[in-house]
Structures are given as structure tokens and as C-alpha cells.
Please model this.
Amino acid sequence: MIEILNAVHNIVSVSPEDLPEHPRERQTIYYSDEKDMVVIAGWGDDTGRIAEMIVNYLELSPEGKQKAEEYFLSSGEDFGIRINNMLKEIARIRREKGQFTMRTDEIRIFPCFADHPPKPEKMENKDLYYQAHGSFESGIILDGAGNLIDGYTSYLLAVRYGASHVPVRYGRRQTITASHRPGGTLYRWELPGLLVGKVHPGDKVTVKTARGFRRVTVEAVEEYSGQEPEPLKMVVRKGRMRRR
Model:
């Protein structure tokens, strides 16, 4: 039987008889890189305590790391060193993958998100996914200043369920200012992720408008400010529209 002990860090408890061939120890803690999962087995009443210590370590605060290291080292020198090295390796892998955790109450929310909450049906579907899988369907992505730029539904679920920390990644969002004709009125669109950093002033791009798809000339490219009064329409592609 598998029990999710901490959905944020993907820590699970597994019955010893359900363990794969490796590891064979009846009491064990190991990391599955394939599933990015910390597996705890055979610790009985101590399982929850161990999960708590692992969480303290992975949240990477100096106090949490010290508390976790003291606990594991008190369990026996060989065991403590082995587990401590494993936790350092997990932290290293997650940093290399761009995965970090952050205090939920330290995430900044742009007005464009706060003023346009997700539709109830969307939140319900995201909530059902969270309850079924123990993880968020959409990742939380922040800019370099800690502003949320994607994954608002996941942030709201974290707040709803009282999660003190959430997994985050860092990324970028960009907008363009462009006109339909030289000297024409300037409008704004958002670049999709695949075009971030690849569009420059003077480029021609295809955009979505209320009247269909149009080709425009880029006047300027800016980092997403989050001050837009409403969600922006997206750039469809760089270059010419496809002819049918």
C-alpha cells in the first residue's frame, strides 16, 4: 500500500512487502529519480516523523537542514550519514532541474491574476486532480522577483489547503507591442513560451485578434509586468501566416 505523506515534495510511505527488488532492507528510505519520489518503508510509528524531517531538509532553510541532520545522525552514524547524503543528492537534482520550494505567503500576485480569478469549473477540475494525484496539475512559475507568472490555480489550491511551502520553477513571460500597419495604433499581445527570447523589434508575427488571425510588425518586446487590466491575447507564431 502506498500512502502520500507530503504531496509538495512527493514523499510516500510504502509497505515493505510492496517494495521492488531494490532496496531489500525492511527499514529503508530511498529516492526514485524516475518518479522524483522519496520512498519511506518499514518505520512504523516513526514514518511520519521521518517525513517531517525530510520536508524540513528539502525546504532548504538553515534551521530545517540542521534539525533534519541532527535527527538522522542521532539514529546511528552509518544510517545518518547515508540518509544525509541522499537528501543532499535530492536537493542537488531538484536544483539542477530548476525545482525549488518557496513559502506560499511570499509569492507575489500580479493584479491581472487577482482581478480575474479562474472560473469555478476550472478550479473544481484542478482540485479533483490534486485530490486524486496528491500534486498540482500545473506548475507554479515565478519571475526573478518572486511574482507569479503562471500556475495561479495551483497557488490558489495551495492557499485553500494551507500549504506553507510549494514547489516552484523560475521562468519568463514577455509581451509585444505591435501595429497592423506602419504608424498605426499600437496593441499588446503575449508571447507563448516557445517564442520567449526569440522575438525582436521589427519582426513580423501572427497574432490572434477579435477579427481572426492577423500579421503585425513588432514595435517593442517587454518583460511581463502583470499590470494588464485583463488577460492578453497570444501571438500565434513568428513569421507569415500559413496559406490554405
Q: What stands out?
A: Residues 77-96 form the longest helix (20 residues). The two ends are 55 Å apart (CA to CA). The mean pLDDT is 79. The helical segments are 47-58, 62-73, 77-96, 111-114, 120-133, 152-160.
